[in-house]
Amino acid sequence: MMLHLILADCELERVPPEISHHRIIKWWARRRGRKPTELILDSSLFFPAIRKLENGSRRGRPDIVHRCLLVALDSPLNKEGLLRVYVHTRNDELITIEPHTRLPRTFNRFVGLIESLFLKGFTERKLLKMRKATLEEVVNTIRPSKTICFSMRGKPKTWKEIYGGVHPTHRICLIIGGFPEGEFISDVDHLCDEIVCVDPEPLASSSIVARAIFAYEEEVGLQMKRFARSGFEGIPQNDSR
Predict the structure, then answer these.
(1) Within a domain: residue 236?
(2) Which CATH number is 115's domain given?
(3) Which of 61, 62, 198, 202 is most exposed, with the fewest beta carbons within 10 Å of its own?
(4) Which domain range does residue 146 map to?
């Protein structure tokens, strides 16, 4: 039993060379003691420069990745060692995260960590590692029993319908977009067994991550198992899973 979660086409990248000479970026580079192209692109800081880029309205969103990772790594599923999280970027970089990783809770420290990761390819104790990989290569490496992608153009389904009938031996892979608007850059259609929509309105990526993990925990009865193993008294025993 294992859930694999891919944050796909994340808007996580370094400052592209074509806007590295913008005065705001140069000012921040001097302040950070880095080259302009070593900074992580951040729309909250570099909006005047980012709007000149193609698809500029969706780029420079490391905050989405930060929120999603905190939610995923804090989950009981991850504490049980039953979750693997991957970050795939718009430029086909892949970040793998060890389950016991404790990420910085503050955004500025997280950005510093990611800047170092881009420079070295790994972090201290290699809790985070980076390499080049397309989304298709990531999915093929996981070799899932079933791959599910979340998109507004997917078939409407409840969470119980999505996970209904999950067998303990199944290796489930979820693909959730790590971008604020629009559609996937990668061709997800031929990678997924199904594309689903879980709400009539667009939800934040971190909200989808939280609900997807919780629904899986409910499907496999993880909460009851954790209570039972911990010896808590007064816990209902009528859950047959």
Answers:
(1) no
(2) 3.40.1280.10
(3) 202
(4) 2-225
Number of domains in the chain: 1
Average pLDDT over residues 110-120: 98
Residue 94 amino acid letter: L
The per-residue DSSP string of the chain comes to -EEEEEEEEE---BPPGGGTTSHHHHHHHHHHTS-GGGSBP-HHHHHHHHTTSTTTTT---HHHHHHHHHHHHTSHHHHTT-EEEEEEETTSEEEEE-TT----SSHHHHHHHHHHHHHHSB-GGGSEEEEE--HHHHHHHH--SEEEEEEEEEEE--HHHHHTT--TT-EEEEEEE-SSSS--SS--TTT-SEEEE--SS---HHHHHHHHHHHHHHHTTHHHHHHHHHT-SS-------
**Within a domain: 181:** yes
- Within 13 A of 106's CA, how many CA atoms are on the CB side? 3
pTM above 0.90, yes or no: yes
What is the three-state SS of 88-106?
EECCCEEEEECCCCCCCCC
160 occurs within a structural domain:
yes
Q: Per the domain annotation, does 235 fall within a domain?
A: no
Q: How do residues 13-43 score in pLDDT, each as one tens digit?
A: 999 999 999 999 999 999 999 999 999 999 9
Distances (CA, A) of 215 to 25, 185, 198: 42, 27, 12
